[in-house]
Design goal:
It contains seven helices and six strands. The chain has one domain: L-fuculose-1-phosphate Aldolase, CATH 3.40.225. The chain is globular and about 50 Å long. It has a six-stranded antiparallel β-sheet, sandwiched between helices. It has 232 residues and is α+β, with helices and mostly antiparallel strands.
Length: 232
């Protein structure tokens, strides 16, 4: 049973990585998607530095929650430790995406959150998408990728990761998550479009602030709340 589930996860993670390319969220070998088998403590992630055109389910890399490679000879993504830290802290997520998509990364490099300026944003994120602090030299020297994960987790100590499934790592780029790899890619697509809209909106009106909380709640909860009524 574990073998079948692992194979299915490899297929899902591979497809999700390829979907990043189709969605124009990555270029060269930047970016990665992972998924997790919670009951077995296995994370499957894109191999490091492999061209997206050469990806297949067979070269996805399974690791345990200590980062040990469980099969194959390929090295996992250099961001694997960040993914693992998030899986450990955010107990009900099943997929994680990291990209260097143009607009979301621009906000990360500017070290600014993505404000909730309108209902498009509010439909998907219950408030502004936060930006972390800049990682310290001490953290970089200690264990960079693991400390990046801790930096994200610390950013969410007063934010519900279930309602805001994205973060900008200052000077680096975005991470998103969801119930599985497919949803995580979907959140990345939404984040990039909202980052683009924000950039254009603030060019037009630099004094913009977050929308009123009642409008935020109405749009988010009609899609995601216990009494949601959007869709069939």
């Amino acid at each position: 049973m574990v073998i079948e589930k692992l194979q299915k996860l490899k297929e899902d993670v591979c497809k999700a990585n390829i979907d990043l390319v189709k969605s124009k969220l990555v270029f060269q070998t930047f970016g990665n998607v992972s998924g997790i088998l919670r009951e077995n403590g296995i994370v499957v992630i894109k191999p490091s530095g492999i061209d997206y055109n050469k990806l297949s389910p067979e070269n996805m890399v399974p690791v345990d929650l200590d980062g040990n490679i469980l099969e194959g000879s390929l090295k996992p993504s250099s961001d694997t430790k960040t993914h693992i830290e998030l899986y450990k802290a955010f107990k009900d997520i099943g997929g994680i995406v990291h990209t260097h998509s143009r607009y979301a990364t621009a906000w990360a490099q500017a070290k600014l959150p993505i404000l909730c300026l309108g209902t498009t944003h509010a439909d998907y994120f219950f408030g502004e998408v936060p930006c972390t602090e800049v990682i310290s030299n001490k953290q970089i020297k200690k264990d960079y990728e693991k400390e990046t994960g801790k930096l994200i987790i610390n950013t969410f100590k007063n934010i519900n990761y279930r309602h805001i499934k994205a973060v900008l790592v200052a000077c680096h780029g975005p991470f998103t998550w969801g119930k599985d790899p497919e949803e995580s890619v979907h959140v990345s697509i939404l984040l990039e479009e909202i980052a683009r809209m924000n950039y254009m909106s603030i060019l037009l009106n630099p004094s913009l602030k977050n929308i009123d909380n009642e409008l935020l709640k109405k749009h988010y909860l009609r899609k995601h709340g216990d009494h949601s009524y959007y869709g069939q």
